[in-house]
Amino acid sequence: MATVNFKRLVAKQAAEILERLQEELGEPAFFRDASDRPVAGDENLSGKDFPVALDGKTIGWVRGGDKAEVYADLLSFLARSEAEKKDAQRDRMDQEDQIARLREFALRFTENPDLGDICLAIVDEVTGSIQATGASVMLVDEDTGNLEVVAGFGKKFDAADRPTLKPGVGIAGDVVLSGKAEIINDAKNDPRYVKGAREIASLICVPIMARGRCIGAVNVSSERPVRYEEADVKLVADLAAQAAGALENARMYEKLRKESGGSGSAALSHPLLLRLLRKAEGETPAPGDAGVDKVAVLAFNLRSFGEHYQALSPQQAVAFLESLFETVTPPVRQRGGWVAAWGTDSFVALFDDEVGGADAAVAAAVDMRKKAAALAHQRRAAGFLEMDTETAVHTGMAGVGVVAAGGGARAVPMGEPVWVAARLARLCRLYGAGILISDQARKELSASPPSMRELDIVRYGAREPNYTLYEVFSGEPESVRKEKEHTRKHLEEAVRLYRHKSFAEAVRAFEDLKRYMPFDRTLDLFRKRCLNFVKTPPPTDWVGVTRLPDF
Predict the structure, then answer these.
(1) Percent of the chain with pLDDT over 90
(2) For residues 386 and 312, is the Cβ–Cβ distance under 8 A?
(3) Would you give the distance in Å from CA 483 to the centre of its chain?
(4) Which residues make beta-bridge pairs with 89?
(5) In the chain, fewer beta carbons within 10 Å around the N or the C end?
(6) What's the rounded Cα separation, in Å, for the pair 139 and 149?
(7) Is the pLDDT of residue 54 over 80?
(8) For residues 502 and 508, is the Cβ–Cβ distance under 8 A?
């Protein structure tokens, strides 16, 4: 439990209430700390000494008559409350630090498909966080069942020269079979110990779990005796859980690369990417290749992943992200789209005219919304936090280039449509929408979706263009969809009044709509704007465009 400064507690935090109590009880008191240094009151006062305790320890004394015991009890209570508050703040800061560290760690391999680099990142992180003279990452070879050291002692190993360990051999082999982490603080006397190039005195071995099975282990060791503890194991387990999904993807990438004969990356062979790069089918993109073409960009985010992460164990968080992406990415692939960039809880997909452009992107977004809602229902029934997603579609001329990083090649989308789509996706939470599309995307549609309504006109920077936003609500629950369809014309009229500066009338119109749709955050947003403009009218040249912060 956190410590509490007794002098500060008496002289500042509890001074006013102690003064009032002494007046009410008519009982003077003398206060001193645990080292018998005076804190407050008359030190010549006679009487009994009552201890002020915190976590079983005396932190101060109160001297006075029998009633003075009340002061000691009060201070003990206040000290405990203050210590608990400090503990909660410290735990929250520790948790925030851990989340920040894990996110920073994840950024090292989120976009890097190289297996060795990911394992080397794990080695670097654990040796930088835990007292150790060495570390290694071992993965199970799916063909032989052997444990292969992919990275260890600050270096990564190529597939041809990776040190191996037979299944079940050694402490790591045992951990992989059991799936349970172990601390061995006297490794040399453990009967499973296998002597290697370096003698090991103390060892942590943590399994790497993916999709409910063990795919390898992380070893952290010291040549000198070290007293490893459960907190050290938890740190290694968090890092292993954070990296597990990337390791699985990297192994698949490596397998595909082998199957392609080693001449190039099968991950770069998507037909849409080849079209953007003006490559023929079967050609292999190389670093430096780039192209520009008209595309529809779909940006997807999981809303408030940080809150979910705090409520889950790292293993649960990884499993959650895996289930989410397995749920929402098939609609992209089924319509010929290409997932061009990944984030921890987001991705960007491209659709060119050959696969339907904006029509395919919006159809995919609607299907994704429905599938995400079904997953959210399952998680809600299992007692997890509410989850929500946000998706946006924008169109334009986007670029894509192939860059080399960490020994592997990857394609990177870029340009105005990509950046705008990502921005618009984040605006979904402002309007309480699941899918937003720009006016550019709407114009590209062969037929307007039956469930769509115009929401707002926005602008980011002073030199940037205006974007008219439309909400596509085809993927919402039937009751919500019906209400929005029923009130669409009424919303258009309310927004028209707003843009023509008839703010008092617009307020009444939005309030009338709110009675039909109390869940609609857009109505609250416009009503608040109107009330503000009634008090402080907008500039004379205002035409209904909302200036947004550039984020």
Answers:
(1) 46
(2) no
(3) 33
(4) none
(5) C
(6) 7
(7) yes
(8) no
Joined tokens for residue 513: 């709509």
Residues paired with 418 in a beta bridge: none
| pLDDT digit string, tens, across residues 208-221 | 988 778 999 999 99
Q: What's the number of CA atoms in the CB half-sphere (13 Å) around residue 234?
A: 6
Q: How far apart are CA 2 and CA 83, in angstroms?
A: 5
Q: What would the two tokens of residue 34 be?
A: 């645990």
CA 341 vs CA 57, 338, 400: distances in Å: 56, 9, 11
> Strand, helix or coil at 385?
coil
Q: Which residues pair with 365 in a beta bridge?
A: none
Q: Given its phi and psi angles, is residue 170 left (phi above 0), alpha (psi -120 to 50 degrees) or beta?
A: left
Contacts of 92 by beta carbon, 8 Å cutoff, 6+ apart:
none
Radius of gyration of the chain (CA): 31
- CA-based nearest residue to 550, from 464, 467, 470: 464
Tokens linked to 268:
């770069």
| Residues paired with 138 in a beta bridge | 149, 217
Q: How far apart are CA 231 and CA 83, in angstroms?
A: 22
Q: Are 487 and 511 in contact (CB under 8 A)?
A: no
